[in-house]
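Extended Data, panel c. Modelled sequence:
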Amino acid sequence: MGLEYKEVKCPNCGAPIKLKSALRSKVVICEYCNAEISLEGDIGIKVGERTRHEYPTRLAVKLGQIASFEGKRFELVGRIVYEFDDDEDIDYWEEFLFLADDGEYIWLECDCDGFTKYRELRPKKPINPRTLRPGQSIELDDKKGTVKEIGPAKIAFFEGELTWKVKLDSSVMYVDIEFTNGETGSIEYTDKELEFFIGRSISRKTVYEALGIKYIPPKKDTKSGIMFVVIVIIIIVLCCLFSKFGGGTSSSSGIRTSSPSNSFSSSGGK
């Protein structure tokens, strides 16, 4: 399915909205008034405030950013932020929708662990995600894997155009799968929609190179090395003090002093 460029007017403010994939996109956010616009059937709107300031992107890119993945040109047309509970803390991950000139699209997922590049998967024998449990072994077409994580997430923010219906503050269920061949599977579903994705993790350097962003390797953490040296120096100094002042087995007062080895072991070696 190729691209179909189309311009529509925002039913809320009248501003022109240029769609990059009118055949596949189902919802778009008006960049002028923040209206959420349905692109299926009669155009309807839901006005809401976008919350970009609460969800700073981990990847400094904007809509319209051009990327080259595996020699193919893509354009960033949408971004979505999912919020979820992580050990009683609220965390989030974000996904970037990149669209190629021939209609192919990929998702670039970004979280605190790094990046994963996904493409749409249309399995010959789809799995009912509601029957899955963490740790369960599954087979999806010819791929064998294990269910890693299942949980709900809230759609906290999105911008641009997306290929499925999205509503702010609505919930979606996700299933993460680890396949034996090193690939990662993802299932996202609601009461009305179900999507399968297959992908692989990619390095930050690869992502930056694809986006034409200068990659600066992270600085090595020397704090632990410095602490180790300081502890060693303290131990050496303590040993010298014990050797100098506690080396005798008795004193003129008849009080026995502890040997260096006994004193050292009683302190736990620190």
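Residues 50-211 form one domain. This feature is highlighted in the accompanying rendering.
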